[in-house]
Amino acid sequence: MVSPFLYFPGERLSLTELTAACLDGLLTPIGEGFMPADAVETAWMRARSLAPLLGERWAAVRASAAWVHGGLALEPSRHHVQRAAAERVRPVRSAGVVVHDVRIPPGDVVHIAGVRVSTPERTLVDLARSPDADDLAAARSWAASAPELLAGARAWLARHPRFPYGRCADEVLGGVRTT
Q: Which of 43, 98, 117, 179 is most exposed, with minimal Cβ within 10 Å?
């Protein structure tokens, strides 16, 4: 689907032309594409910019999903994708992608701009259970600024008591002070 606000290499312009437009200040990179420099970056734009990467079978998770939902201000340098299809598929091959081949349950996925993204609650839990310091800092910051999301993430953990590293996530989220 061609968007009037997103440009992907090969749709209407080549990568060379899109890069030249960036140098001229007309476009800015976002996800796997480019958008007008004066356009507002929304959740729809962020999600749609990942469509070439995710396709029909993958979902954006962790820091990538947090960026789509607005929990992170800056696009992550490496996108995290998780299998959303029931059958195993060939992993995405890209240097800037971390693939998680365990299927994410359909109940933990929302559709934004035609692509799959983990729900905000599941995304916050995934960041809070991560051993990565940047993910933990992002989880604490996002949870502190969104008390209703924090409550939803803790409720999600209560419904999934056997979730891997769930206790670690609950400890991290339990220590967050909301503003």
A: 179
Q: Which two tokens stand for residue 73?
A: 């201000």
61: number of Cβ within 10 Å: 27
Q: How far apart are the first and last CA of the chain?
A: 40
**Rounded distance between C-alpha atoms, residue 80 and residue 98, angstroms:** 5
**What is the per-residue pLDDT across 50-103, written as a single tens digit (0 to 9) for each?**
999 998 899 999 999 999 999 999 999 999 999 998 888 777 777 789 999 899
Residue 129, classified by CB atoms within 10 Å of its CB into exposed (0-12), middle (13-18) or buried (19+), is buried
CA distance 130 to 82: 15
**CB burial of residue 22 (10 Å; 0-12, 13-18, 19+):** middle
| Range list of H helices, 50-132 | 51-54, 62-69, 120-128
Does the global pTM surpass 0.85? yes
